[in-house]
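Not sure how to ask, but would you mind making up any protein sequence you like and the tokens describing how it folds?
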Amino acid sequence: MAARAVPLVRVVRGGLVESVHAGHLVVLGPDGAVRLALGDPDVVLWARSSLKPLQAVAMLRAGLDLDGPGLALACASHSGEPEHLAGVRAVLAAAGLDESALQNTPALPYGSEAALAWQVAGNGPTSLTQNCSGKHAAMLATCVARGWSTADHLAVDHPLQQAIRTELGHLTGVPVAHATVDGCGAPLFSTTLVGLARAFGRIGAAPGRAPGSAEARVALAMRGHPALVGGTGRDVTRAMTAAPGLVAKDGADGVYAAGLPDGGALALKVMDGGDRPRAALLVAALAVAGVASDALDAVGQTPVLGHGRPVGAVVPVLGPHAAREPAGERAGGAA
């Protein structure tokens, strides 16, 4: 995968290119045709938490009865703020469960302010506060609805996980070739970059093309509750707020995917796994897809700081704000 990666972002400090993030990116048009491909659009990858909207579609098809805030949390990598925790508890309670049923890896809240408040209150890492607890609550609720066992629901051969695996192949158009375990403890299935984008295009267009479908329900939940999908200050929340109709989901290790109401979509993978380039790339790729605004530009601005002040920027190589080769481009000297 790394051998076919290409530069996607240049980090410029003081007029010199200090570092480069390489990876893969694809933008699809409303008809699903490739509008732009950088690197290898067919690269096989772990989409990490960008898979959550797809997993949520699968759970709805399997019998999950959830919409609105609860469904948005099923798609979320939430920051662990009070409204996130209350929402997860509500999903569990509706299924006759409480947070003791969660089996995801205990962690502090993902958001720094939420984590500080949680610890000041005398709390430590829990499954509830781990950023995937909404997905896990929805998994448990699906099992209860279907009469499936909950104790072993994270086993890769459990009926829930097999239903998810089958639906992922349907949504992406790519059969699952690999399986492993995600950071939260749930099974993680592979796909391709273009397959991930294709699935997001289907979800994004579903309210107009297939009202009432599982895909449409996921799209409406995410669009209606962007603060639950991420949290305060998070770029995924800011992007969906800035571009009404957008369905976007970040993923660990440099993944992002987004779908538009017209069926256009994008997906990207930064090969070094860093978060720094993702927001800038998301906004630049959206511009290629025909979605741009001052509000979105603000989401994509990631300043490079020197002594606490901006002295450079993270600049994508695509879109209207594409990097221009600075004079004497080379790695900068020591700080």
The first helix runs from residue 52 to 62. Confidence is low (pLDDT under 50) at residues 324-335. The domain at 2-316 is CATH 3.40.710 (Beta-lactamase).
